[in-house]
Structure formats: structure tokens, C-alpha cells
Write a structure and sequence with these properties.
This protein has 317 residues and is an alpha/beta fold. 46% of the residues lie in helices and 13% in strands. The protein folds into 3 domains: 2-51; 63-234, 3-Layer(aba) Sandwich (Rossmann fold); 240-317, no CATH class. It has helices at residues 2-21, 25-51, 68-77, 91-101, 117-130, 160-166, 189-204, 219-225, 250-255, 260-274, 287-298; strands spanning 80-85, 109-114, 139-143, 146-147, 155-159, 176-181, 209-214, 231-234. α1 runs antiparallel to α2 (25-51) and α10 (260-274) packs across α11 (287-298). The model has no long low-confidence stretch (mean pLDDT 91).
């Protein structure tokens, strides 16, 4: 395992320096025997991980599947890969599994960062489900105040803030052999800092693989930053869209008589009256608007309708 390899190299250097200053060959021999046992256990653990790697299953309907073979081959050949694709292409859930197929996740975990906690937990659950396993076996997640990553996990989904925090105790990130930065186009401070750290690590860790997953924006910048890393473009999934416009009562809005919540509730009721089947997404400006809209709809729609809020700070429970 990569962690053990790094520890053994540091430990061996200290032992040899100590031997040069001391004439106690017996003490040096004992330390070397202990180190050998550690490396044997590490090699055995890697062998077990290789034999117990989960059976991979992919949903065939996702657009990214058309590029699966190209992605797997490129990951094997190149140290850094940029994968560009629109929302709905399947990047977040399928790239970690493709890394497994490329032989990653054996010497260390495949780490995948997400900008938001709810995305990290949801994606981890989804990947585990697609592998036919319960969360906490081959796949785990770590967010603030919650860590469901077992010691022998192959895939770990986490927020970018968690990976930054781990740098304090593991500056070279030896517990990972592959790191995926998802939603890199958001270019937050955390993401930009991680990209800089990873570029520095690539020289000292030639076995480390870095995958940058982004929307179609700024892929050329990412490629140039990582020394002309290859870019693989994945098409998105296009759905038919019908645009409707509701009457705009500017006077009532300016007077405060009508709010975004009022308008959203009215639109939902109008659409439901025309077609009560199917699901619906309602986008609101703020977290409080989402909560207020949900409460209003619960009092107006029948009990058969499941009304669920969704925002970045939503608790995991």
C-alpha cells in the first residue's frame, strides 16, 4: 500500500542514519525485521484488495458510456485526464468506477471531491447501489461531522474541504492512488487550492492519477495548467423543453403583495391541474424561499404528493 511504502522509506532512512552513528548492529537488525514484516503485510493487503475488487456494473443509458473505453485507456496511459461533459452525462457516478476498471484503487483509495455535502452523500449512495452493495463496504463518504468510509474502501466521496483538511496530516495524500476533482468549473477557493497542490504532488508521486471533471467551460485552461493534459469530451443528455410565460404583475410585486413563493406555488398548481402525473423541479432564489414554498405546497396538494426540499446545507438525515 502507498501509505506503508512512504512510511517504510522514511523509516529505513532513519534506521540507516542511526546505524552510521551507532555500533549496535543487533538493534538495527531488529528494526529492519519489523520493517520487513510491515511491508509483507502491506503487500498481502494489496493482493487481497485486488482479489476482492467489486464487480463493476454500468447503466447503459448514460451518455458517458459511449466514451468509457477511451476514458479507461487514457487513465491507464496518462497521469492527468480532463473529462468535460454537460449535466446529466453521468460523470460524477461513473468516473470513479471507470478508475477501478483502469486498475486504480488498489494501492490506495480513489478519492472524489464534491463542492457540496449533499452531493457527496448522494453520489456515494448511488455508486454503492450500482455496485449492488450497501454503503460502507467498497464505497464510503466523508463530510463534516460524518465519516462512513471503511478502512478497506475502494472509493471515497468527500467534500473538497475534507480533502484540504486531510492535507494537514497527510501532505502527500498517500492514502489515495487516484484523486478526482468533480465540478472543477465552479472554481471555488477550495478547488483552485487543491488543483495547485495536486500539480505540485504529481512530480513527487509519479504513480498518482488526477482526473479533472468539469462542465464544458474552461477545459483548455485546465489542460494547459496540467501541461497539456488530454481532454475527453462527453455529450450531455438533451430533454425536450417547453417554455411558458405567466403574466407579470409588476405593481403587485413592487408593493410586496406577490412574492417568488406565491408565484411558484401558483405555477405548480396550474401545471398539476393540467397534468397530475410525473415529477416536478421548482427552482427558488434562496434556501428560505425553498422552505416556504414546500410548506405552502404541503397545505395545498394532496397527501400522495411527496414534497422535498433540496439545498446545499440540507442535513444528511
Amino acid at each position: 500500500m502507498l501509505e506503508d511504502k512512504a512510511y517504510a522509506a522514511t523509516r529505513l532512512e532513519r534506521i540507516l542514519k542511526g546505524k552510521a552513528r551507532s555500533k549496535s548492529y543487533h538493534g538495527t537488525a531488529v528494526q529492519l525485521v519489523r520493517l520487513e514484516k510491515l511491508l509483507r503485510r502491506s503487500a498481502q493487503r494489496r493482493s487481497v484488495r485486488s482479489s476482492k475488487r467489486p464487480k463493476l456494473r454500468y447503466p447503459g443509458h448514460l451518455p458517458i458510456m459511449a466514451k468509457k473505453d477511451e476514458i479507461v485507456t487514457t487513465i491507464r496511459k496518462r497521469q492527468v485526464v480532463i473529462i468535460s461533459g454537460e449535466t446529466g452525462s453521468g460523470k460524477s457516478t461513473q468516473i470513479p468506477k471507470m478508475c477501478l476498471e483502469a486498475g486504480r484503487g488498489l494501492g490506495g483509495m480513489i478519492g472524489c471531491t464534491q463542492p457540496r455535502r449533499i452531493a457527496a452523500t448522494t453520489i456515494a449512495h448511488r455508486i454503492a447501489e450500482e455496485l449492488g452493495e450497501e454503503l460502507g463496504r467498497s464505497v464510503g463518504y466523508k463530510i463534516r461531522f460524518s465519516d462512513r468510509t471503511p478502512r478497506d474502501a475502494y472509493i471515497k466521496i468527500m467534500t473538497d474541504g475534507i480533502l484540504l483538511a486531510e492535507l494537514q496530516s497527510d501532505a502527500a495524500l498517500y492514502c489515495y492512488d487516484t484523486i478526482i476533482i468533480d465540478e472543477a468549473h465552479e472554481r471555488s477557493v477550495n478547488i483552485d487550492f487543491l488543483l495547485g497542490v495536486l500539480k505540485r504532488l504529481l512530480c513527487s508521486r509519479p504513480e498518482l492519477k488526477v482526473i479533472i471533471s468539469s462542465a464544458t467551460l474552461e477545459t483548455e485552461k485546465f489542460s494547459l495548467f496540467f501541461n497539456n493534459a488530454p481532454v475527453i469530451e462527453v455529450s450531455g443528455k438533451v430533454f425536450p423543453v417547453e417554455v411558458r410565460y405567466r403574466p407579470h404583475d409588476q405593481d403587485s410585486e413592487e408593493a410586496g403583495d406577490i412574492t417568488y413563493v406565491d408565484t411558484a406555488v401558483a405555477a405548480v398548481e396550474e401545471i398539476r391541474a393540467e397534468d397530475p402525473t410525473g415529477d416536478m423541479l421548482v427552482f427558488m432564489p434562496t434556501e428560505q424561499d425553498i422552505i416556504d414554498t414546500c410548506e405552502r405546497l404541503k397545505g395545498r396538494l394532496d397527501d400522495k404528493q411527496n414534497i422535498l426540499p433540496l439545498f446545499a446545507r440540507l442535513p444528511g438525515s
